[in-house]
Amino acid sequence: MHHGVTTLFTLSGAHIFPLYDAAVGGVSSVQAGTAGPMRLVDVRHEQTAVFAAEATGKLTRVPGFAAVTAGPGVTNAISAVAGAWVNGSPLVLVGGRAPDGRWGSGALQEIDHPPLLAPVTKSSSTVHDASGVGPAIDDAFRVAGSAHRGPVFVDIPMDILFTPAPYAAPDPLGPQVTRPDEEDLDRIAGLLRRAERPVLVLGSDVWADGAEAAARTFVDVTGVPVIANGMARGVLPPDHPLLVTRARGAAFAGADLVIVVGTPLDFRLGYGRFGDPPAPVVHIVDSPGQLASHVDLAASAAGDLSATFLGLARHVPDALPVADWAAGLRERALAAIAADAADLASDADPIHPARIYGELMRRLADDAVVIGDGGDFVSFAGRYVEPRQPGHWLDPGPYGCLGTGPGYAMAARLAHPSSQVVLLLGDGAAGFSLMDVDSLVRHDLPVVIVVGNNSGWNLERHPMRFLYGYDVAADLRPTAYDDVVKALGGAGETVTRPGDIGAALDRAFASGVPYLVNVMTDPDVAYPRSTTGV
């Protein structure tokens, strides 16, 4: 609570019982049936607890909090921690540990965790003194929430955690903030003033840094066309005249300056090569360690992103002469959107995956939180679903770890209790974590779950056919995942005809329980991986 945390995500284990006792307020609170100071959400697999904590950090911009027991509890969590590391998500994970007093003698689940977590955390350490637990946790939240954000792991031996120790928590220091260098901003402004066809790419850290309003100010002042990805989707609403995400191919091919803010120059952005010959690239990040080292940058800046956008707006106080360029890209983006209409309304049987999104989008409220967990089916979501608000789109990110969905959905329902929460699952991804629908049911967290069920790993099936002329290890059964959800206490139905999708979604939104709509789609329809637009 001291750091703004209201929920602890966990899976029960004796090594961390004192954390539960603190979360619920002790035995007197339990006997009286009163709520403790912190909500305790227990799950069926440790990675779900960490995914939920990660998503809490993403959605609220306050570090999420998870605790797992020793040994396999910690190792089960590592993939989720790695995802948070790659995503730059603020997260504090406490791990139980075999007791110091028995260390080396073969205690239950005895293993040295910090070396396993060190490569995928900002800090990974063990506390060996009860008086050091409080300061270590305070420091963990400060480090996790400071740019560049990320996970912090604190390992506490069982005998240390069970030892009472007084601690008066100081006022939180808050995250450390670094202002960008004015000379860097002046250099970037000079490149902008000379550019005829600039493009601005906004990434997730624009949201994480609380810079969405400053980004809009900069865009409105300069008139630079924008491509948004990750949690920056929604910084500009879908009808904004400068949003050209669906024309990204043409934008990158024709740009003479590309400014990338708040996201790495990784495979999603062609590793920082735009056009042929490649356009000059400016990389703007929240901390120096995030600057691309594999690209010859024309300029760069590191520091608070709000201050960076507002500083650039001061250096470039008037609209740039790029209106025709921006308008041309917007026309291409609108043409790409219009070209989708046939697929979104398709009456094909078997069902075209796009028809699901045609039905879903007309039912989404402006504040809906949409979560993607899957490969081929969720790629369609990235193409068609355009959030109207930033911070309302969640996906596994560049690490691509499947199984995020139920944990992300838990966090979304808690962070936005009055909003629609929609989890889009590929049938392959469903196999990783669908058991945690049980957790959604037990904690009364209603979510609409839509499975695009093509009975296989389509993201691998079609490329393998292209390469070899056949596929192996890519087939799944046409499983009735809705029956799984019903068995876990939720509800759902299977849809096999395109005309039935809309009514099924209406029943799901009205149900008030975790409800899975299992849509059987055409396995021969694959997402076109070469482009996201024109």
What would you say this structure looks like, in words?
- By secondary structure, the protein is α/β, with parallel strands linked by helices.
- The chain has 3 domains: 7-161, Thiamin diphosphate (ThDP)-binding fold, Pyr/PP domains (Rossmann fold), CATH 3.40.50; 182-335, TPP-binding domain (Rossmann fold); 340-520, Thiamin diphosphate (ThDP)-binding fold, Pyr/PP domains (Rossmann fold), CATH 3.40.50.970.
- It contains 22 helices and 17 strands.
- Strands 2-1-3-4-6-5 form a 6-stranded parallel beta sheet, sandwiched between helices. It has a 6-stranded parallel beta sheet with strand order 13-12-14-15-17-16, sandwiched between helices.
- Helix 3 runs parallel beside helix 4 and helix 10 packs parallel to helix 12.
- The mean pLDDT is 94.
How are the SSEs ordered, and which strands pair?
Layout: E1 7-10, H1 17-24, H2 27-32, E2 39-42, H3 46-60, E3 64-68, H4 72-87, E4 91-97, H5 114-117, E5 123-126, H6 133-145, E6 151-157, H7 158-161, H8 182-194, E7 198-202, H9 204-208, H10 212-222, E8 226-228, H11 248-254, E9 257-261, E10 281-285, E11 299-302, H12 305-315, H13 323-339, H14 341-344, H15 353-361, E12 369-373, H16 376-384, E13 393-394, H17 405-415, E14 421-426, H18 427-433, H19 437-442, E15 448-453, H20 458-468, H21 481-487, E16 491-495, H22 501-511, E17 515-520
Parallel strand pairs: 1-2, 1-3, 3-4, 4-6, 5-6, 7-8, 7-9, 9-10, 10-11, 12-13, 12-14, 14-15, 15-17, 16-17
Helix pairs in contact: 3-4, 3-17, 8-12, 10-12, 15-16
